[in-house]
Write a structure and sequence with these properties.
Chains B, C: Pfam families: MoaE. Chains B, C: It is an enzyme of class 2 (transferase). Chains B, C: Its EC number is 2.8.1.12. Chains B, C: This is Molybdopterin synthase catalytic subunit. The complex is a heterotetramer, with 2 copies of chain A (86 residues) and 2 copies of chain B (149 residues). Helices cover 31% and strands 31% of the residues of chain A. Chain A is built from 3 helices and 7 strands, in the order βαββααββββ. Chain A has helices spanning 10-16, 32-42, 44-52, and strands at residues 3-8, 20-24, 30-31, 57-60, 63-65, 70-71, 76-80. In chain A, the strands form 2 sheets. Chain A has a 5-stranded mixed β-sheet. A two-stranded antiparallel sheet of chain A has the order 3-6. Chain A is globular and about 35 Å long. Chain B has one domain: Aldehyde Oxidoreductase, domain 3 (Alpha-Beta Complex). Chain B is built from 4 helices and 8 strands. Chain B has helices spanning 13-21, 55-70, 101-118, 139-146; strands spanning 2-7, 29-36, 44-51, 75-81, 83-86, 90-98, 121-127, 132-134. In chain B, strand 7 (121-127) and strand 8 form a beta hairpin. The longest helix of chain B is centred in the last third of the chain and has 18 residues, at 101-118. The two termini of chain B are 24 Å apart. The chains are: A alpha+beta (86), B alpha+beta (149). At the B-C interface, helix 1, strand 2 and helix 3 of B face helix 1, strand 2 and helix 3 of C. Strand 2 (29-36) of chain B pairs antiparallel with strand 2 of chain C.
């Protein structure tokens, strides 16, 4: 089955209680929004987390991306709050 | 000459500056910024820095390359620590070397402004009473980064 | 905490940065600029820095006090060498410590811009063929200093 | 007699061949310009140096001053070219 790896960082990782999972994705690829809708429908904790957390960022294959961008099988997807380095 | 490190260990300030200084005879100015854990009088004990291994290095190398091209740098060093650091400990070192002072000074400000909001680091504060909280991103930092667009 | 030195010896970069870093728990950012003798591909061998003993120290302390007040600094160090320095050797160290990065970065730029045209130092260049010439003041340096008025 | 110390730095010192001298000054003080005119009238090398050198700066008692400022007995006067530190 076509899948992607999903990573969670910082407060998202902590609140979900996991840092990594695998999810099914359409073989021809689909938008982050589309994939995320499917995940949220299956997982009420994830749904609640995205509902209460503003400004979640997404990266595809270790580069910042937008929720409209396409995720393809084998991609590494990551969700995290705004960055606070330096 | 770009040097990017993400490490748990502290860095050698004098050694890093000497490295920039000796890159070539054409170096006339070296600018450095170092950020450290600031005590805020509210019982902060330590910061724990989490990052996104792989992406962090890519972003920092990209920023160093952008700074080098934009400010004609001869050398550019970015070192960011991860893990737990107590009040007073260094977190980040940005150093640039150029022929003239203006380029190095500007490049250092550019790098620290951009990496604050563009590199995948997250700070979690731990207080002496055991409480921990994730640091909220500051709008002022987004504004500072955007000034370089 | 103001520290101003005019000396013939080289300075200890790591030691000076550590000193700024340890001034207090409230230090969050340290900014440093170091200027060194730049080889220009024209046979420059060394610079000799002449100064006006007494006036030099007064001017540098005045600039450090002005920077400390204007940028809310917690620490401010200015070290300027005099005498003869070969290509690659350090000439000047400016270091500032503050709670947040913007103040330290701006203060360092202010100090180096202002001391270039306001402190009584004069550079004489010596070339490998034995020729010596006094460095001419640059209008661009006056302009940079005036931006802080 | 009322006098001031005069210092020369950098290219001025080098071209004059001296770094320090003492000069008579009016007991009630006088402008730098007035004192300098008297000095230049007595010393053709000094006169030629001031004629060919643009932008000479003056300091009184180790603070930058203007040529209109007043020099008083006991003051330390200094002439030098634009500064080139850093």
């Amino acid at each position: 089955m076509a899948s992607v790896t999903i990573l969670y960082f910082a407060s998202l990782r902590e609140q979900l209680g996991r840092e990594r999972e695998t999810a099914a994705v359409a073989a021809e690829g689909e938008s982050v929004t589309s994939l995320l809708s499917a995940l949220r429908a299956q997982d009420s904790a994830l749904n609640a987390l995205f509902e209460r957390t503003p400004r979640i960022r997404v990266a595809i294959n270790q580069a910042l991306a937008s929720f409209q961008d396409t995720v393809r099988p084998g991609d590494e997807l990551a969700f995290f709050p705004p960055m606070t380095g330096g | 000459m770009i040097r990017v490190l993400v490490q748990t260990d502290a860095f050698d300030l004098g050694g890093e500056m000497a490295r920039l200084s000796h890159i070539s005879d054409s170096v006339g100015g070296i600018s450095v910024f170092m950020g450290q854990v600031r005590g805020q009088g509210d019982g902060l004990e330590s910061l724990t820095l989490e990052h996104y291994p792989g992406m962090t290095e890519k972003v920092l190398i990209g920023l160093a390359e952008e700074a080098t091209a934009r400010f004609s740098l001869l050398g550019c060093t970015v070192i960011h620590r991860v893990g737990t650091m107590r009040v007073g400990e260094p977190i980040v070192f940005v150093g640039t070397a150029s022929g003239h002072r203006a380029e190095a000074l500007q490049a250092t400000a550019f790098l620290i402004d951009r990496l604050k909001t563009g590199a995948p680091f997250w700070k979690c504060e731990r207080f002496t009473d055991g409480r921990t909280t994730w640091v909220e991103a500051r709008e002022a930092d987004d504004d500072a980064a955007a000034l370089w667009d």
